[in-house]
Amino acid sequence: MPLFFLVALAASAVGAICGIGGGVIIKPVLDLFRLETVSTISFLSGCTVLTMTCYSVGKSLLAGEKNVALDIGTPLAVGAAVGGLLGNQLFALARRLSDMPNQVGAIQSACLAIVTAGTLLYTLNKSRVPTRRVRNKGGCAAIGLALGCMSSFLGIGGGPINLVVLYYFFSMDTKTAAANSLYIILFSQLCGLLTTLITASVPDFRWPVLMLMAAGGLAGGILGRKLNRHMDGKAVENLFVLLMMVIICISIFNAWRYLTPL
Questions:
Q1: What CA–CA distance (Å, rounded) separates 153 from 90?
Q2: Which domain covers residue 241, as residue numbers?
Q3: pLDDT tens digits, 203-239
Q4: What's the rounded Cα separation, in Å, for the pair 97 and 90?
Q5: CB contact set of 108 (below 8 Å; sequence gap of 6+)
Q6: Whether the Cβ atoms of residue 94 and residue 201 lie closer than 8 Å to each other
Q7: What is the per-residue pLDDT across 132-167, written as a single tens digit (0 to 9) for each?
Q8: CB 122 within 8 A of CB 164
């Protein structure tokens, strides 16, 4: 049981620093230990990420910090929220079409490995890639829609995909992108949770585990926010790169194990 808290704490702390939410760490790590079903892990991960982002974004806005570009971030967040609904439906459809839950887990893990590898490749070479400055609200919403759909289907809340999009389409620096990513993740996770509750599609879960992970998410948000203030953009980026390498390895292993008969 303490493992759930420790995973949520560490993932949320790193997520708050890098702006990746934490779900991209929680999902593959819990998949690795197979402590719950694929659906339950996605639900617990989403609740943990929501707790952390509520604290981080709320604290930032109350403190009057200007890192979040509301004129860009809000259309992105609204688009991501709608995309999150579509991603949830895609995940539910995949579960219904497959008579083997492990197949869904394998697909998620493989997709996560591919997306994370692409994110890592871009991050390592972004200084050589010309960026854009999208300001059209419709364009922002469309980009957010694609982000939310992909993130929700993978059960990761947003994370590294958000950062690459913010780097490329909006020319943001590392720490500004991290703050805006958390803002987007907050909207998409809240909308996804409300939809799950309204449609009565909440998977079986244990309340003590949910409480532990939510507590870990909150504590991680507090710790990560404090650490972020003492780190420069380069340190945040180095942590992000290291994290992506670990996630790729875990995701590849998870995809193989889900498809391997016990």
A1: 6
A2: 2-258
A3: 899 999 999 999 999 999 999 888 988 888 788 888 8
A4: 10
A5: 27, 31, 38, 153, 154, 155
A6: no
A7: 889 899 999 999 998 888 877 776 666 678 888 888
A8: yes
The total of structural domains in the chain comes to 1
